[in-house]
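User: Quick sanity check before I run a bigger batch. Here is a single chain. Can you write out its predicted 3D structure?
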Amino acid sequence: MAEFRIDHRTRYEYSETVARCYNVAVIRPAHRNGQLCLSSELEILPRPSDIAMRRDFHGNERYHFSVMEEHRSLTIHSRSLVRTAPVSPAGRESYPGEYEGLYDDAELCEFLLPSPLVPVRRALARFARPFFREGVLAGCLEMSRYIRRNFQYKPGVTSIHTSVPETLRLRAGVCQDFAHLMIACCRSAGIPARYVSGYIETRPAPGQQRLLGADATHAWCSIYAPGQGWFDFDPTNGKARTDEYIETAVGRDFTDVSPMRGIVFGGGRPSLHVAVDVIRL
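Assistant: Done. Predicted structure follows.
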């Protein structure tokens, strides 16, 4: 069991005046799967004209707000206290034969089908199936380790719109790209897989001080085991989820769980600044 204080500040600055904007924020840590959000507050400047929390189809908390006064910057500051629990291991292994017929399950079929950033292709199925010979969960751990070993973590070479084939070609990317790749491989092989967004505790290199604001949001994937539920794997770090992970939302891919999205009237050219701190208490 671990407790974390999470400070997530997003700031947009605009080259011209924004007349008004409508936004959706998905940044509050989830309260599920043994994770408890003990407290949370959201500060928005300029103050929104209205704000409402709604749960989406996947159970994520989405904060809808609008700013109707003119502004040249917008700041969204989320502060949370979260308790995570040790992740329970699977009671048993799962095997490919157990996954037949899941397309008829209304809650699982969307995590088997293509989504905007996750294709389902025969070539990906051929790549994935050898990993599952000793079992699906063991295979997912080995696949995450394979991606960690064979793909370079390299910010700046991809964008939020980068496709799985492009990630394969580059053999490089960031956590979003590697999560999409692993999800695509699993779905192509008939294994339900979903995208998870959140945070992970990071530690400075030995002898170096921790830099404030230097953390970031993180992404990994969750794999379904029939009769047992969902188990999370992180292909960026090549391991299964531990209590250092803090979940905010789940969806088919990044398009379902983007931390911030909205419509801006005016503003010219925007610039984005994000600072995140994940501090173990």
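The longest helix spans residues 136-150.

User: Great, the batch can go ahead then.
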